[in-house]
Automatic annotation (TrEMBL):
Pfam families: AMP-binding (PF00501). This is Acyl--CoA ligase. It comes from the Bacteria. Keywords: Ligase.
Amino acid sequence: MLPVADLGLLPEGVAEHHGGTTVCADTPWASACRTPNTVSDFAVVVADYADRLWGAGVRPGAVVALVKANHFDIQAIQCALVRIGALPALLSVKMEPADLLHCLKELDRPCLLTDADGAAVLRPWQDQLGEIVSRVLTLTPEAVLPGAVELSESAPHQVTRHLGTDPMLITHSSGTTGKPKLLVHTVDSLYAHVAPQIGVVKSLDYAGISAKCLSFVHVRMSSGLLTLLNTGVPFLGISSPDLAPVRAALLRYRPESLEAQPNMFLRWEALARETPNPFSAVERYISSFDAMHPRTLRTLLEASERPNPTFIQAYGQTETGPVTLLMTTRADVREPGRLDSRDVGAAFPGMEIRVVDDAGAEVAADASGYIEVRTPARAESMIGRPPLPGRDAWWPMRDVGRLRPDGHLELYDRQVDQVPGVPSTLRAEDILLDELPELGEVVVIAVAGAVTAVAVTADGKPIDDDRWQRARSRAELPEDTGVDYRPWEDFPLTGTMKVRRHRLVTPGTPG
């Protein structure tokens, strides 16, 4: 029987059953012993990383912070660390340096494993590293930091098997509303992430490649890897969300399934108008971070040349894993009224949702309030924080929404991002994007008590005022709502490309 949720053992076990299944990345594996193209190759790379980590003195119980360029090799290194009994802490190289240093300090002198990109981010603080980390290991010789040792010498490693309650992985929240939180996942909690995903995949008729362009340090990718290995779905990891590499990867591999973060899909709308069409072979799109803008749903579903393409959305957090599931078809987005919905679907079996008021009392059916969930997939603990309540306790998602009579959840706002006088900033943004196709992004915030839409346009030019006012009125924004036009590069983003709204408070300046 395969070890369903043990990241250290699963690659080797799966290689014995369907080792020829495609597992690859769109860019080179800079530090791997070979370029994997199959599950068998991936298992060999995991074992080689394990030998080199063992040769460098990494032993069971060690906490190893991984800070490197975004690439699918992060998942192989993670598996290798778990395999030898170490505890990987996956940190985004896109994190703001102050937040990255904060996370390293929270880990209490971990071993740091990095590459050239990670070293470049940390180099301005290299004099502090000796006090923050126990040692520095590098994956490539270009990663120059004081006292760094390249991961090159090999020694046969010893395999560690994990029990269900053993910590297996540390990941971090996105930091959308503040400093990222470090979350510890056990075998059991990660399995609870994976179980519903395995069920969904097995219910679908997968044949072609499943491509994912994600932050590969996110727990979503770890659970995604477990799902792919357990179901035997061919896989492609796309490293960069930029238009050129995404276009090249999609045209080369023609994936049947494509998963990305919502703001990636938003930016990829431009690709849907190209010839040749990069999305022509996509039968299902997948996103599991935030609700998707309906314009993006419609654009990508219309771009597919498959007869019945589907957009699969899940709502959840790093702390909880996916909680709800919604499948949207091309026919759905053509229905009148569908474009105004913030529907994120119904709860997975075994997971519960409720909506409460300020006092924590459940609100009347169909009323809005604060979303809480109860799920066996909730993280075990947070580094540097008090013990978390048991998994039978209700968990606050810090989001505002309503639970409809049909069991579907509608998402309105993050609690901290609510704007006085605006029922739902997210719904308002949906309408603005649909009414004004030239908008590349728009974020509604409160600045000094006034409602402001921070916007970027495709051509960099402001929108005609009459058209803006008509769209603003339909979005139910106040008449005096201001517009602050900025280039896309000035939007402060997390590693998962969420906009850090609290950093957009000063009009006309970067966050």
